[in-house]
Amino acid sequence: MKAILAFALCAATSATLLHVAPKPVGWSTTGAADSSRVVKVMFSLKKDMPHHDRQLELRSTPGSPLYRQWLTKEEEAKLVTIADAAPVHEFLATHGVEGTNFVDVVKAEMDVTTAQKMFSTQINMIKHEESGTEWHQAGDVHVPAQVADVLAGIYGLHGTPTTPKVRKTQNTLSPMFPENEFPIGPTDIRARYQVPTSTRGNGNTSVRQAVAEFQGQIQNSTDLSTFFTMYVPNAQSGDDQIYAFEGPGANMTGDGVEALLDIQYIMGNAPGVLTEFWAQKNVDFCSDLKVFFGTIINATNPPQVFSISYGLQSDVTLFCQNYMDVDMDMKRVANLGITIIFASGDSGSGYDGTNIWPSWPASSPWVTAVGSTCFTNMSMVEEESTIQFGSGSGFSAQFPLQTWQSGVVNSYLTSQQGMLPPSDLFHTYMGSMLGRATADVSALGEGYEVISQGSTVIVGGTSAATPTFSSLISLINSALNTAGSNPMGYLNPFIYNNAASFMDVTLGSDKIDRGGDPVPYGFNTAPGWDPPSGFGTPNYASLLAAAQQ
Length: 549
Known about the structure:
It is a single chain. By secondary structure, the chain is an alpha/beta fold. It has 16 helices and 26 strands. The strands form eight sheets. Strands 12, 13, 14, 15, 16, 17, 18 and 22 form an eight-stranded mixed β-sheet that branches. The chain has a four-stranded antiparallel β-sheet with strand order 6-7-3-11, with helices on both faces. A three-stranded antiparallel β-sheet has the order 2-8-9. Helix 2 (about 50-60) crosses helix 12, helix 9 (about 255-270) packs parallel to helix 14 (about 460-480) and helix 10 packs parallel to helix 12. The protein is globular. The termini are far apart. Residues about 1-15 and about 170-180 have low confidence and may be disordered.
């Protein structure tokens, strides 16, 4: 070990420091990684994309002559210049490692001993203090200058897996929330959001939707069929069948509650829409996202809508140093006319005793962030911001306030003077202006009936709201397809131009943590747009009419 460290110190003097070791919150070092442990690394190449912002603005803004004229895979690729991978392959070859190209990355595998020599670093094991999840993490990462010149970042040496969520699951209703928590299913959701009973997908193979799972979450097809039998009364033969699987082990059988919730509700709310199940192994979350979005970009005919119920309300720089590289991938996907919808998080304002944090990737400008609501006093006709957990929301320090949302956000801030969090907690973009604001919209997120191992459990979270909202967009895409129109694609400018198509939520706040306990700082709901609920919950009939204009 001393010899390895001596080499690292010597090599560092002739190499470029690419990444400084982060200190992820809630993780502690347990000791050196075993020398034979396999480390999977991706070298992400620099990309030049000078036209993507303007192209996306033209194609996603209602009223534009190019509205919803999305780029093809070939057209989008021509707008991207990717750095030469040769220096990376030469670097790998000097250490006896072979690399393979995938979209804009070079993938490689090596043992810990080789990785430590290559990157002039020390690799230790770290453990999550709450869940017990273990992973490896390198110290500072160095590469030769000629390699650093072509890299946007390296994945697999820093970053942590997403830790298991604390979900509220039970077989009977909790006495803690007797006024609000009662079971709901697809029939209740469709009725609340004014989806006609006869509305279903048209079964066209070009109009597909998907859930994307991380944490090693796998669904169970038997539970899915049982769910349809019990809770989707107008289902037709075959509606309960997943159209395709993507990713390692995606077609295996499991009982991950998150995966069951996602697949049962994106399909149960939108029968007739062909649905795919995408899954990533539980590697570090940042690496998984890179592979996930790369797979979409590389696909010939990917689904039109992706529902993703994962993220973290914390300092993104500590768990995904390459977040800007991933963000560029999300921008590429948006230009392809693919709708990416993320859960906004379950930790309310994300207050951790020092700061408040929105969730990432939900805070990326290129995705739609979905918050969560619940019925007020079992009314079935009025909603408030969720009370079992906090609907994730806030302002990003990584991305600027977007032009399509600046008006409503500034109006909200003016209306909340004297009620906002202290300025030292209130994140700003580059210290001088507000960052990207979330959530954009919301949907019911408490009391979902889910079939797990043959029995009904009650589940809640923005993870429930997200597949629900996604399913309605898929139904709209199906109607547009039948009429010969293009899909909705990147949604945000459309949403902010059609506030009247959402049912306003004006009761509640995000001053609640993941466990349902109050926190001192956060944001209130208010008339119009607000962080906990966005513009509110969808009125399907109104959204469809707006989309058809």
